[in-house]
Write a structure and sequence with these properties.
Blueprint: E1 12-18, H1 22-36, E2 39-45, H2 47-55, E3 62-65, H3 67-75, E4 86-90, E5 92-97, H4 108-117, E6 120-124, H5 127-138, E7 149-152, H6 154-162, E8 168-173, H7 174-179, E9 183-188, E10 197-203, H8 210-219, H9 223-231
Helix pairs in contact: 1-9
Length: 235
């Protein structure tokens, strides 16, 4: 460790976070290390999984999750009260295999036709997938594409398309679609159909390294962190 870093910078900061932020947070953790000399260890999962880890008392310094969960966990004494900055929001988009041609998903009509022409529509069995199921109803094609719908665990969706051979389309959160090798990002849902999930950062009451956790929390709203978030599809 370089002498320009303080002794406490050598401590490792542990962060529990919702999975869609992985691409951006990985870059942010590296930038934080370059600036502060502190390593950041991330544990990623779906919101329910991360929420359960905190509820069960898993030791960590920082939590990044949807604001509604933060409010609940403050009441439960798991999260430090006060300001919990919203670091960004993510939307829903579509992707296909990297070797496939572009499709028009920029308008409601273009999206509707693209979905009707697909061999399979693959999306997850958690909140963002539930939302997309409602989008199919709003488009009036839920029954027409019912036989094409495949719902999987979030970790399996992209691989199903990457290793497919037909005209499969996957639907998911934009950061993961844009940064997964083997996928061609087709675009976000049209504005009138889009839905966003926001994420807030909070300090955990059982933090073994509260000073480091606070420093990383503050770094999450820095220009360097904002640039990494934007580059990885987080608005």
């Amino acid at each position: 460790m370089s002498g320009r870093f303080s002794a406490d910078a050598q401590e490792k900061i542990r962060v529990l976070s919702d999975g869609p932020l992985r691409p951006a947070l990985t870059e942010i953790g590296e930038a934080f290390y370059r600036e502060r000399g502190s390593h950041v260890e991330f544990v990623f999962g779906t919101s329910p999984v991360i929420h359960k880890k905190v509820t069960d008392g898993e030791i960590a310094d920082v939590l990044i999750i949807q604001p509604s969960f933060v409010t609940e966990l403050v009441t439960a004494g798991k999260v430090v009260g006060g300001e919990h900055p919203v670091i960004g929001r993510i939307g829903v988009g579509l992707a296909a295999r990297a070797d496939s041609t572009a499709r028009d998903v920029s308008t409601t009509q273009g999206l509707r036709q693209t979905l009707l022409n697909a061999d399979s529509l693959i999306f997850n069995n958690v909140a963002s997938g539930d939302y997309f199921a409602k989008v199919l109803e709003r488009l009036g094609i839920a029954e027409a594409v019912k036989a094409k719908v495949i719902r999987l665990d979030p970790s399996a969706v992209n691989d199903r398309v990457i290793h497919g051979r037909g005209n499969e389309i996957c639907i998911g959160v934009i950061p993961l679609l844009k940064t997964t090798r083997g996928l061609r990002f087709l675009g976000p849902l049209p504005a009138e159909l889009q839905s966003y999930v926001s994420y807030a950062a909070a300090l955990l009451t059982n933090s073994p390294y509260p000073q480091g956790g606070k420093a990383f929390n503050n770094f999450l709203i820095s220009p360097a962190a904002r640039a990494a978030l934007t580059a990885n599809g987080v608005e």
